[in-house]
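Fold these two proteins, one after the other.
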Amino acid sequence: MNNTQHTKQWAIKTLVPEEVYTDRAFFLDYFYNAALKARTRRTMSTVLLGQRRMGKTEIFKRVVNRLFFEQDHLDPQAVVPVYYSFPDFFKDRWDFAEKYVKNFIRWYAAFRLRDPSILWEEKLDREELVALIRHKMTMSEGLEGSLHLLGSFLKKTVTAPEEVALQHPRWVADHDDSTIVVFLDEFQNLRLPQYDFDVVGYMQEAVESLTCPHFVTGSAMSILAREILGRGSLFGRFRSKPIEPLTVYFGAELTHKSAQYYKTEVSQEMAPIVAARCGGNPFYINAVVQQAAEQEKAILNEESLNTILSVDLSSGFIWNELSDQVNRWIERINEYKITKWILYLSAVQEGDRIDLSRIQQQLLAKEGKQVSLEQILSLIHI
């Protein structure tokens, strides 16, 4: 396959093979049409909310690819898609601001020039990106502002870089009277308690935009729903679109598709049982089927299913996923390291209640932090 054929397929690589992908057409169409409707200034920022591994990121990537390739990129009324996944780590506020705006510029240029390779830092560094844009693109006021802002970040001449960065896509859309839709994944990483800068509050003005609505999702449902969107400056700023587990019907359909793709056997009777035992979670369904293929064992009855589940829960994909969830939660400690001591004392303490004073004592003795019982209690309830 040559490079031209390759780049026509995707701007951002999806993970789930087409042969396996099942029952998410409603969400694909909803977000695609909502993005296009933003041209009429009637689309509100929206959160795709659901448990981990329900396919939220995959939906966003597929919608972005459709917007990238199914529109006329030369049409000034076309909707510019921008995708960004918040990482778990930022060096500092300048690092965050530069990466956020540079990502925006890459997506803007890649769409307008219909060239996905512009998104790849491996092929085009910052200086080359700026030179290409000035050579090949008509410089609007918004685009000129983007390049100037990127330079300002490098020189550190901006007063509040994180605020300006987050609001920049809207600024460009407003100044050029164009339409931009920003897709933000791992949105819970907006609030990382181990950092000394908080960008959540700056999102309010960014997302309250009819020229630049933001579609967001994330893997930490409780943090996203309660800590970020359920209180404070972003409360009430997003339309919510919940995503549920697959029904037994579609779960069974996915089981059959996955079995065919990974070349293993699942009996007709066991397919809905596999789906039900996995709680309708598409990731877990695929994990069980892949484990069966790895073990070279067909799933023909409850006994064979139990065998496969026991292997995967102890050492397979599902184990790795659950371990990742726990580790991410532990790492998401606040500045006082309260989370770590809640876990530790829960494991060693007898009874079904945690003694808050013991947490307080450990924080003072081991971490050198004086924390009130009220602060500890509030974090336990998050």
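Now the second one:
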Amino acid sequence: MTRTELIAAMARAAGIDRDQARLALEGFIDGVTGGLQRGETVRLTGFGSFVPVERKAGMARNPRTGEAVAVPASRSARFKPGEGLKSVLNG
């Protein structure tokens, strides 16, 4: 599903126009992004959680050359599905 398809589905489900659905999706994305930037876990009960993850610096190996490469520390996010989502996906 693309962003455009998601906006259309949100508009149909909520009985609103596409511009309102687009603004709602952008607000959701901004809210999740802001929470993760502050190091907060964003929980949507029954759906899942967006969790910030700190990755430590380390060494990796280039598979093509075998050369050791330094990998800097970074921040990322993971999604952990909730029980409601898991049950829908697993029938």
